Amino acid sequence: MAAFRSLLTIFNKMKNRFLNTYIGVFIGLLIAVKGNAQENFVFYVGTYTEGTSSDGIYGYEFTPGSLEFKLRSTIKTPNPSFLALDSTRNFLFVVNELSEEDSKVRLFDLKNNSKELQSLPSYGASPCHVSLHPDKSVLAVSNYMGSISFYSFASSALTHLKSFPFKGSSVHPSRQEQSHVHSAFVSPHDGNFYVQDLGTDKIYVFEVSSKSHELEVIEKEVVELPKGSGPRHVVFHPELNHMYVLGELDGKIVHLKKEAGKWERVEVVDINSEEFKGENGAAEIRITSSGSDLYASNRLDAETITHFGVNKDGTIKKKQVYSVSGSGPRSFALSPDERFLIVANQLSNELVVFDRDKKDGSLKDTKARVKIPSPTCVVFAP
Q1: Which residue in 261, 286, 297, 335 has its CB near the most CB atoms, within 10 A?
Q2: How far apart are CA 176 and CA 235, in angstroms?
């Protein structure tokens, strides 16, 4: 009897060990599957409608596992060249890049069948960029023909605050004959709008203030850039107070850092391969949320995206130049998980999807494509 009890004890121990082992393996597999599962992403694409078959703005759902795209919505509006998203309240801000008489900034309610809530003048010609302050209080509209317009945003409505016209020129005979305001981005370090003027090789810095109990935008400083660079877009390092300015005309990144209250130039880096000799049309620049990798696109004779590694001191090192497998990479965006990079090839009328290695930042063409007329801007919902 004692021998039988011993055998029974050994059996129970082995059974429990067996069950615990396989339960552990099962749980581990569940965790692994959940960790590898990727949620679908939603993004919106702005386009040019004049002279094309485009209706305006297209909303897509992207399934990462199968690299499939589903068209969710279409918003009919003329030349919506740039978009900004308030994901908290599901509002979409749009600029219509038209003549001064017809140029608009529009507000759409994505929760209510993309209903247009508001349309206001852009107070300038050819608006080509729109951005919302992170605190959702102010919207900036960049009018390419030489002005920046600011709007307050409260109670789901826009109100024009003030417009600032700019004058001046620079060395390029045909592209810098006057001011050409191309974008306005907010620094995470000081909360100011940085306004790029391609025509004068300057960045105008504006502070949002409510000290007088009334919201206002105040010009604070001007940052001078190399002549003929043609600043188009900028990004800011998420941790260091560093700024990377992409020059459309010279295809170079001007890297600056804030020292003793002033912007000091650190380096100027060419985005092209060493053998490149053609004409530049640099367009978009992005930096990852960790600040480890930076990407910039170039059009015209290049048709490329260049990957830079970002060192701990903020300096950048060119790692690889990739073909965009198309023409006119006017815009690109990283998916919220930074696993994919989607390029809007305006002239070849398609979106091109790159897989991004999150360890080393390298890109690989997935061969996934979305045919779309004249895409100009890609904005992901977080």
Answers
A1: 297
A2: 23
